[in-house]
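Q: Got a minute? One more chain.
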Amino acid sequence: MSVSGGEVAKAPEAPWAVAGACAGAVLFGYHLGVVNTPLDAMSRTLGFAGDAKVAGAVAAPESPRWAGNADKQASAARLWGAAAAARARPWRRRRRLDGRLVGAMVSPRHRRATATAFLLFVQQQFAGINAVVYFSTKVFREAGLQSAVLGSVAVALTNILGTVCVATPLIDKFGRKAMLCSSYAGMAASMAVMAAAAATPALAGTPALAATSFLGTIAYIFAFSCGCGPVPGLLTPELFPSKLRAKGGSIGMLSHWGCNTVVGAAFLPLVAQLGLPAVYAGFAAVAAASAIFAKVAIEETSGAALE
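A: Always. Here it is, folded:
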């Protein structure tokens, strides 16, 4: 940010509807073109093949930081309107980054933010979200659900609708910490119920187990979409000043996809060795611990100045 006339010039905030459109475009492509075999087959029928996420990203509006850069006035005008884009011009000055910023990430002033950015996505992934999403069809089928494919479609729609219709309009009203804590609590409770049902021999192969598996998964995904899904990506850049924000986001994404790979690769071998109830109980324990971590260790950034 730059100072003009003694005031800090800020980029205008995009309306929540624009943010929701961005989230919806990404989530649509994520579920339709990347995850779950039946959804991939549907996407091919619709003509998206495996590239729906790319198509959604191309159609989404630019981020405020990019649109605020020099020579991006047209993008800024499309995102905020011509008048607001004109007022944001002082904010467009670029800063030159140097190697000292790497050391700043682990300096006493910023090491807490760096650790938080890393741990947010460790907790998100080890609470089991992508194991549930990737393998929901298999889990539903083994639980006896008549249409595992439709169950997986319901999982995708729940994630999209929860993020766009619940999290997006409420995340600034209730704050990042409250949304994250309640989200993890819901995920822990849902996963614990499914683990208990799967561990009950009397329910094996019954409609009750199929219903518990389906409804528990839907509740888990809904809880995720209301906080644990969107909050880490929003909170991470808010923890850092502008000169470190991109590096902070990179650390978060490194943690996200690294842990995603570990969980995705380890889920089926762990289920084969320990059983689904034990694995789900582990996910529930991580989610419960993450709720406590969010309550006591994460700094609330809602309404706070970014600099």
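A: Strands lie at 3-4, 7-8.
Q: Perfect, thanks.
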